[in-house]
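dude i think i finally got it to work??
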Amino acid sequence: MIDQDQINQIKEWTREFFKKMTIVVLDVQASISLMERNSKEGINESLDVVDLDVKIEEPQIIIGQQGQTLFEIQRILRAVLTKKLKNNLYVNLDINDYKKNKIEYLKYLAKDSADYVSSTGQEKSLLPMSSYERRIIHAELSQRTDVVTESSGDNVERHIVIKPK
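look at this
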């Protein structure tokens, strides 16, 4: 598990990372949690998760279209932090609460669409979205007994269909 000194280092390295990209960082908050996962060998292992909330002046540059740039920067930052800490970890980077707001929107979309399907009895196809976004929709509706969700389509056209039960 990562300690408080390492959290402070992570915050400083994150500031340096964005500074090298000529991005003005207003604030960096970091927290750590553990994620359980199964390795390829079937062994259950714990992985440190670093949640980074970064506030910057011009977030649209880092977020990009539909958050794609943000996810790529998150991947690069994970590689940098893993190398510096000499510890395999997962990084969850959020810029100006973009992901937090996106998750809330997707949950609202899921509930609203499920209510429509339940009341009309007609299935509804959502717009294509990333696997991360589809996972949020599936999870949000997984406990509902009146609708089911399934992913349909291929590659960039993959989307969710909500159907009445």
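The first strand starts at residue 25 and ends at 38.
im so relieved honestly
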